[in-house]
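1st attempt posting a full record on here, be nice pls
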Amino acid sequence: MKLKYIFASIAAGAALLATSCTVDEPVNGAYSDFSVEKNNITVPKAGGTATINLKAPGAWSIVTEPKMIDVKDANGKTVKDENGKKVQTEEKDASGNIIQYLAGTDYWLTVDDVTPLSGSGDATVKVTLPANDGTTKSGQIEFALANSFKSVFVNIISEGTPIVASAATCQEVIDGTDGKYYLVSGNVTRLVNTEYGNFDITDETGTVYVYGIKNASGQYPKDADGGWESFGIELGDKVTLQGPRKNYNGTIELVDAEVIKVEKSLFTVDPTEIVLPTYEAGDTTVTVECKVPGIGVYSSASWLKVTGYNDNVYTLSYEENPLYEARTAKLTVKGPESSIDVNVTQPARPTPYDIVNAIASPDKSEVSATHVLVAAVCQRGFVATDGQAYIYVYQGSNPSPAVKVGDYVDFSGMKTTYNGVPEITSNKEPAIALTVTVESSGNPVVLPAAKDITSTIDTYTATAAEFITFAGTLKKSGSYYNVEIEGAAKNMGSLTYPVADLGIDAFDGKMVRYYGFYNGLSGGKYVNMIVTSVAEIAPGSLDAPFTASEAIAYVGTLGAGNTSEKDMYVKGKISSVKYTFSANYGTATFNISDDGTTTAPQFTAYSVYYFNNTPWAEGNKQVAVGDDVVLCGKIMLYKDSKTGAETPETASKKAWLYSLNGNTE
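the predicted structure (as tokens):
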């Protein structure tokens, strides 16, 4: 519903509740008091003026809208907001005025082409178009009656150069060129959407996906009088249509194709989608109603066979699924001139792992697990593992029993998907209770290797409870624990109801590294984690490298001639190079500063090795002024025994180049 009709709709709805009047329903797209003389008008290729005679009982207007276009920066790149979405604005003319188009005309008919745009009572509306040097264009003009729900529509066609479509087989369309028009015939073997008309057509050479069909007035089924039924297309029918080819992510499509001819199938099949009830062996049926003899039913898989026939009903027998994943087969019903495909899916065989099976179960199904280990806990539930997979069990605000890490438990409940990841919970409808029983406690827990998503948190996604880690600054607000991550433009970490034993409150405002299980993406930006451990990040660590200035200050606290006990990380930009890397020595010596200038405080990388603390070799990358580097190793305040001059630097041959311009190898 368009915004300008909302208040009128509310008032009209209130009136309907208060009275028992009869609502005026449209007949053939028109009302008894609000209609147009003709629902279709055509302007010839040479251009001209067409008239629309409107009958209206009161004020009316033509629905218009602006065209939204992407905002570009100075370099011509599309501007995006903090959520990564394109920033758009209304299209404007050379004078800066917003261009208004007639809604429903795909932005080719503007308000300048039609007069008047509004009025009161009966009217004659004129549509004036210039010559059309392109292909035929079609659209729909909407007349809206004020203070009502009523709208009437006029289809308008601007004749142009006829599109010449190349006759082709499905395979020739598949091998063809995007944007080129093809005329192709095939049987409808799969129906996907009847609002716009999305379906597969198949001939003896292959299958093409039809993404939208239109009638001679340029209408999708949802807009046409009679809807989808007006096109007369059913499974098995042979359809001839034409439209432009498009390769959409590897799927070859005919887009917004025009239906030329429909030849009705001589048989029907029911159903055309079969989901078998079990992984075990069994039988199912399919019914084929046919007007002619010569029907054949064929299976694409050896595990699915046609084993019987009686009174148009075919019996299909299927074998037990030996796989731990669902499998599919195609049953093809062939007639003298067409065919219909029936897709058959058999569920996966249960694995020996209860949590793997639970994750694979459909949402809202009841599942159970025995002798699974608690790997993590939060204030609302726990993460359990069967040794192969992990899943979150949500117990609510007062978990009972309150399990601990290292408990072996049994549970049963409803499997669902929340924030993009599977979880176990209870449910009211259908009624499925969550039960948890502790078998034993104090068992050892070995966590998997953590996936570090600190640098990729803006794009990170997963469909399971992966074990992850990220580092950032904790921002606590009430019961919310959010983690701001340096360099992230969109997403941030969020800790899911951490338990008090972790002591996380003490880290508010500090740089901390978190480990735990991914618990889904919420609010479009919060990467949730059920925490298992935390570690405050020390200055000079990999997560928080010293700047050149900070390293200079740190070695000053050590005193001249003293070397740091631990390896420290220092970042900066190369300001000058004394010795580039050489194969003879395997090391390089250069200065870095915070901003890459020689006037800022200088920290010296003295005789540092290459990546991974190895000598540099010919063919390896070289350093240069302006490079961004991170050093790792012992650092010190060197004091010249002769001059007494002090230099903050890496200890000779006890440090190496950790990264160069973001690369570590």
